[in-house]
Amino acid sequence: MTATRQDADTAQLMEQILYEVKRVVVGQDRFLERVMVALLAQGHLLVEGVPGLAKTLTVKTLANTMRGQFKRIQFTPDLVPADLVGTRMYNQKSGDFSTSLGPVFTNLLLADEINRAPAKVQSALLEVMQERQVTIAGETHKVPRPFVVMATQNPIETEGTYPLPEAQVDRFMMKVLVDYPTDEEEYVIVERVTGPAVEVSAVASTEQLAALQQECRRVYVDPSLVQYAVKLVSATRWPDRHGLKELVPFITFGASPRGTISLVEGARALAMLRGRTYALPEDMTDLVADVLRHRLVLSYEALSQGLSADAIVGKVMARIPAPAKPLEHEKLAA
């Protein structure tokens, strides 16, 4: 198959997936784009928004468009780690122990209201999100490929919630903020929900998704773009080295190297979604806030002045210019 034909087939498949999802979900184009980026880049997604904004519906509908396994875990305060990863069971008849695998053994895992469970339960996801495996009683079990975690959290109710540990938050490729729909979108939502139910067709298989993920890794990223990602992340750790001395009192900890990796992988996936085999600066700049907002630990001074992580990321981006667009001959040579 020629490269051009392969690109056309890829674009058509992603278009079919988006078409099926949008038959159910109204609006939320930006959120949906980020979900697709996470899928292609093999990253995990943290979604924050008030109840009723179709966060769960979007992920569930996307899972239905693929012939893969989808599981949903409702996080509650009484959950224990074994409820997620599984445990060893004793069989009285045979006198043997057998392993009962938990719901994390799936292709698309929806962790609903992840901040409702205590830290020990949230930490049960650490190994599976990074290594794509689970260790139960010293025995390692690989989860199916592809494997993506989509977690939701509610920002308005703080009673009975537990902040996510930093190590957990850092494993999420992006944190996406979902906002209310427009009046026009809400009108369509009401019509669609109160009308006949829409059946979503499965248009892709997990094998096709795995092939898309492999193809995504081949999207060309110019070294100047990688350098731009490194500078952005470095500026969140040592703002004074990048002429941002005024931000020093506001940042306790900056982003980790996972932030740099996520920027590059995200730019690749977004370029692929936009029908290109090479990444442009706008592919990266569009994702900077989503990739970095949850990785910054702000100081008390920043919080007392009402400064958000997004505002600080905005100041960093204003100071560090994006590189010029890759030249045509560079792109062809790549």
Automatic annotation (TrEMBL):
Pfam families: AAA_3, AAA_lid_2. Residues 14-154 form the Sigma-54 factor interaction domain. InterPro entries: ATPase_AAA-3, CbbQ/NirQ/NorQ/GpvN, ChlI/MoxR_AAA_lid, P-loop_NTPase, Sigma_54_int. PROSITE patterns: SIGMA54_INTERACT_4. This is MoxR family ATPase. It comes from Ramlibacter aquaticus.
